[in-house]
Amino acid sequence: MNLWVYIQEGGAIMYVLLFLNIIGLGLMAFKLFTLYSCEKSIAVTAQTITDRINLNQGKERDPESKVQLAKQELNTYMAQAEKGINAIRLIAAISPLLGLLGTVVGVYMAFKLIAVTGMSNPSQFAEGLSLALITTVGGLIVAIPHYIGHTYLIGVLDRLEVHLERELTNRLL
To answer: Which of 58, 90, 91, 96 has the smallest number of Cβ neighbours within 10 A?
Structure first.
């Protein structure tokens, strides 16, 4: 069997999982590209922030107040860089729940069929259980790479923040 047949057998929940997977993988690729671009331009970013602080506050300010302003600027910059990361975490969190929903629906369908027809046709019962297992697997297949990607991107963000803070400190002091 190919992948598309499994998705079709899983029903509506598998289509939702496929949609979430496509959105999440695209978002992860975009964030990776964006964050690596940010890492390569740390010196330029630090200089821009330093120039903005010096322009707004003047050179006569004491270094401590400039450091406080730099922290505020850094927080603003990092908040912008973090946009989209929570969506990846959300996909990682809800995918197994959607898989579980599919499991419950599949088992419900299987037992409802038994209630109506009895155990005269076990293949129909197996069809409901098949739906249950396929959606569980689908939810996990979507969740695992998104969880790994989210964790990796958080590490990249942390590294970016440390390098940028060090660069700003060196320029302001």
So the answer is: 58
